[in-house]
Amino acid sequence: MGLWKLVRGVRQLELHRLILVLIVFCLLSMAFLAYFVSNSPKIKEAPPMPFSDCGGVVAAAAGGQRAPLFLPPFTVRQRTVKAVDNSRTEPVVLVFVESIYSQLGQEIVAILESSRFRYHTEIAPSKGDMPTLMERDIARYALVIYENILKYVNLDAWNRDLLDKYCAEFGVGIIGFFKANENSLLSAQLKGFPLFLHSNLGLRDYHINPAAPLLYITKPNEVEQGPLPGDDWTVFQSNHSTYEPVLLALTKSSEALAHLGPHRALHATVVQDLGLHDGIQRVLFGNNISFWLHKLIFVDAIAYLTGKRLCLSLERHLLVDVDDIFVGKEGTRMKVTDVKALLSTQNKLQTLVPNFTFNLGFSGKFYHAGTEEEDEGDDMLLQHRHEFWWFPHMWSHMQPHLFHNVSVLAEQMRLNMQFAQEHGIPTDMGYAVAPHHSGVYPVHSQLYEAWKSVWGITVTSTEEYPHLRPARHRRGFIHRGIKVKHCHFTVKLDNLIQKNMKESIRFACVLLIRPSVFKSKKNNAKLCYCSLSSINPCHDKRHKDIWSKEKTCDRLPKFLVIGPQKTGTSALHSFLTLHPAITSNFPSPVTFEEIQFFNGPNYHDGIDWYMDFFPFPSNVSTDFMFEKSANYFDTEVVPKRAAALLPRAKILALLINPVDRAYSWYQHQRAHQDPVAINHTFHEVVTAGPSASKELLTLQNRSLKPGTYATHLEHWLVHYQARQLHIVDGTLLRSNPALVMDGIQQFLGVTPIFNYTQALVFDEGKGFWCQRLEGGRPKCLGKSKGRKYPEMAPETRAFLTEYYREHNLELLRLLNLLGQALPTWLREELQSTSWS
Ligand code: A3P
């Protein structure tokens, strides 16, 4: 008992000690915390600045003093903002729109497209699920934009949590718009945020907060007096340090509004959420982006929130062509006053854009062809010729596409050059513009040739490629060494001179011109280049109007035999040409029979080059022209290019067992003395591992890759409809060509139905079907088709059968989906593999 008391006494003593130790520990930690809090940086640390500088300087606000333009912040719990995730190579923007027709949604997309930013649109789900945000552990989207921010704040808890966690984890920002309507509450709190909205206000006199971290293209030093357009503005109010105003304005009415506090103060219509509230950075707009300044801030917001991975450089090159100098009917031409206005506009623009110079395009034939006053205007232009840049149109302002003969075009150009020399106009610009942009796109090769020979032109421009509208889709290209830049927008000269000079210069499209790559000799215009894709001129009236009358889309193929190589494409070609209504291209001197236009460098020779391979059809509706280029099948770029020029063409693909195709290709290479094929057995070629020589792997790839049929066919099906595609059974073509040719005739809809049973004869010596000549003699394909070579080794066949098994299953699925008959070889192959 005594012992028990003693133990209890000792325990109580320990408990007291423990409590004492705990109290001392708490006091020490409080003192420690107080010390560090008082010495830590003050609140409102700016979030991490973007990494790259997008080719320019970092935002003006970096390190700048924050002006007290918003309600004073109070200390709140800080949240750290995750740096923008830089892991994706190509950042994509996820845009939640209200509907596919909603105006603001379209404006957002237009800006993203003009800036060439990749994006994906989704209809904003009110309830329902978020689109998939992750792809194999990689964040799919670098930025989220909500056309209607309420769709974001009103997301159900699960989806909201999902999106917020994604944004916080990967440093993804959110841009949102609040566009008030007559039903909007005048004042309300944004659900879940320490932020109040006051709607349907008229505003005036905007200011840009120089301390807003997102500012990049937008310069804060301008304050514009006067009303902002519309009376449906929303302003944001908060006393949380996470919100930094970006754009501020006064309310229109001179009275202070009760719900906005007692003073008539500046109110924020765009705010930047620095992420101090919940770790996510946001930019919120209290209106749409119709107001020009919102466009700028929107572009800046994208740049900022993506760490400048989606960013427009600050560099802009402005080239204003003033077309048609000396051209025009009496009474419509420039007089002395107009020339003075032009010069004074140029001077004013030079204060904004150093060395800005108008670029004048002239047609000499019409010099002094106006009224007396207008002729004086011509003279004044020439007196001041050294203050401008000059470029030639045609001498008589004729449209080049109307002239087929290069020498006629060259003569016209020479006359204009003579005029320039006589009047002291410089002739070394290297830049020209065709009247009406005729001959530039669709390409009129004769124009390019004459330009090069007479003027040494290296750069021209058009607004026609690929089409006039929408302007933001316009691109440049290079043809025969001449760079074709795209005109982004056209302004009426009198607008620039008198009415809207300021607005013209502020053009959002000036903002959105992407820096690009061309420089002409003198003007330092950087331009955009994309590869030329020949688009069918007959499907666009504007293109047709500026296309040579001697050219016709009837001179283009109605169908293509796309290969792949070694499947019997030459036999099919020769059988097709027996048909009285079917015509092939003229043989290419370079590639023998095949043109190979869409798959390689020939493509850059343009549509004229391609069309020259085809005769003019005698009857457009009944004549069927085609071309066969066997490596179209597996060259990925071909379907897109072919569909741009021949969207209505029918496509024939010829398939044999890919194992036999591979072997035939190997034998073909041996016959052409390919040293790799000669020095290696077929088995060695197809089984070579990754450490094999480059040459061996190339041969392996060219043997095996075309045989993954389904993959290649899927590329074609992206650009052509299933009903345009016909799969020809190559094995059946070899054994029963008449039957196959009947099926093809039906598919093409060609008349008359040609009797191939009579037209073909089996040649025992050759072992193949051949053309039956008069008297029944066979005319077969040459020695290179239907070669004699040993059987494939059984183990190699087994290896390849296994190699292609999955691909063949994929082909089976695809053909079933398309409702196409299965080739006999595929049926047999799948039957035998399923037994093994
Ligand atoms: P092999 O020479 O390996 O036997 P392509 O013309 O696409 O290059 O294909 C050549 C293959 O077409 C030949 O391969 C041959 O087997 C096959 N072929 C099918 N029908 C033919 C025919 N009537 N005459 C010659 N070869 C034919």
Automatic annotation (TrEMBL):
Which coarse location class describes where this protein primarily resides? Golgi
Pinpoint the Heparan sulphate-N-deacetylase deacetylase domain residues. Answer: 315-484
What are the record keywords, sorted?
Disulfide bond, Glycoprotein, Golgi apparatus, Hydrolase, Membrane, Multifunctional enzyme, Signal-anchor, Transferase, Transmembrane, Transmembrane helix
**Keyword Nucleotide-binding on entry:** no
Which pathway is it part of? Glycan metabolism; heparan sulfate biosynthesis; Glycan metabolism; heparin biosynthesis
* A GO MF label: heparan sulfate N-sulfotransferase activity
- Membrane topology for this entry? Single-pass type II membrane protein
List the cysteine pairs that form cystine: C770-C780
List the EC numbers from the record.
2.8.2.8
**Keyword Membrane carried by entry:** yes
Kindly list the places in or outside the cell where this protein is found, as annotated in its UniProt entry.
Golgi apparatus membrane
Q: What is this protein called?
A: [heparan sulfate]-glucosamine N-sulfotransferase
Gene name, Swiss-Prot/TrEMBL? LOC107696866
